[in-house]
Specification:
By secondary structure, the protein is α/β, with parallel strands linked by helices. The protein is 38% helix and 19% strand.
């Protein structure tokens, strides 16, 4: 913050009287400074400026962005947080079910509701980190380091995102953690120990598990209070659901007695196809009360929003998908 002193003279009396007004102005930042501060690509900052999500003024070819606007963007509107965060793992051993997309958009929706949210990317593909605008090639500390190395402070790996939630990002290095975790004491409970000290700092922690049932997913489930299972509304996508539910039950019996599956989340739903409707009806019949409604529809804008560096709530705020994720956030948080 900087102070500007204005001296104003009033004339009309025998003596001129001066009054001093001190105005406090927010520091102005360039787009590159904002990108460096948030550890995102400069193009992501430009997209948020152009969409109106981030406030700034254009001077010539460059923007000038108030520091306060950057801080306001990455902080929740309010938080009545007490106690520890609710930890939610989004898991499915099948890939391509919009798992990372759901983590990102659910986190953004929870942030919109005024909750403090941390995302943890447990997938070596780093799709969640990239979607959140993180330049993974520049990272010095990621979830891999926290899982494998000792003596690290998890807060040092936490980054801000322009969508609002914080993130502990991933890199391709995490692919080696599957084997390295086997050499750890209680290999399925390493993540639980890592986040123990930061749980009081958030309302919600969302874990993006990889598309497998290896050590990384087991760590996510062992650390979680709740599980949301994104599932594509196709026959082949539903075949692995029983195996995942058995895995969750084993985790409940042996490691984490408090874990529970709260929602099965239908994604990429083609409402006009008979097959998608039949699969959804079958899910609702087999898992009454656990299949979230409305389903997440298949739209081009859901695919476009990560490329634009935005959540679907910013990219298409009035669309069905944005409204569905907001409805899910209200159910998850109890704000419905």
């Amino acid at each position: 913050m900087s102070s500007v002193v204005l001296v104003c003279s009033r004339f009309g009396d025998q003596k001129a009287r001066k009054r001093t007004i001190t105005m406090t102005m927010s520091k102005l930042m360039s787009t590159q400074e904002v990108a460096d501060y948030l550890n995102v690509d400069r193009k992501t900052v430009l997209r948020y400026l152009q969409s109106g999500r981030l406030q700034g003024s254009k001077l010539g070819r460059e923007y000038r962005i108030p520091e306060d606007a950057v801080r306001q963007l990455v902080q929740p509107a309010s938080s009545d947080r007490t106690g520890e965060a609710t930890v939610i793992a989004l898991a499915n051993q099948k890939g391509g079910v919009a798992k990372s997309t759901s983590v990102f958009n659910l986190a953004a929706a929870l942030h919109r509701l005024g909750h403090s949210v941390l995302m943890i990317d447990m997938d070596p593909q780093a799709s969640l980190s990239i979607t959140a605008g993180i330049d993974v090639g520049r990272l010095k500390t990621s979830i891999y380091n926290l899982l494998i190395e000792t003596g690290l402070n998890p807060k040092d790996a936490i980054l801000k995102t322009l969508a609002g939630p914080d993130i502990i990002p991933s890199t391709i290095d995490l692919s080696g953690a599957e084997l390295e975790l086997d050499r750890q004491f209680r290999p399925a409970e390493v993540l639980k120990a890592v986040i123990a000290d930061i749980r009081p700092d958030y309302d919600f922690i969302l874990i993006d598990c990889p598309p497998s049932l290896g050590n990384l997913t087991l760590n996510g489930l062992a650390a979680a209070d709740e599980v949301i299972i994104p599932i594509q509304c196709e026959f082949l996508a539903t075949r692995g659901l029983a195996l995942l539910l058995k895995t969750v039950e084993k985790i409940k019996q042996r490691i984490n007695r408090s874990i529970r599956v709260t929602w099965i989340l239908p994604t990429m739903y083609h409402e006009r196809t008979v097959h998608a409707r039949e699969v959804l009806e079958e899910l609702q019949a087999n898992f009454p009360g656990q299949v979230f409604s409305p389903p997440i529809k298949h739209t081009v804008k859901v695919k476009e929003s990560p490329a634009a560096g935005m959540s679907i709530l910013d990219y298409d705020p009035e669309g069905d998908v944005a409204l569905a994720y907001m409805a899910l956030a209200k159910e998850v948080s109890g704000d419905a």
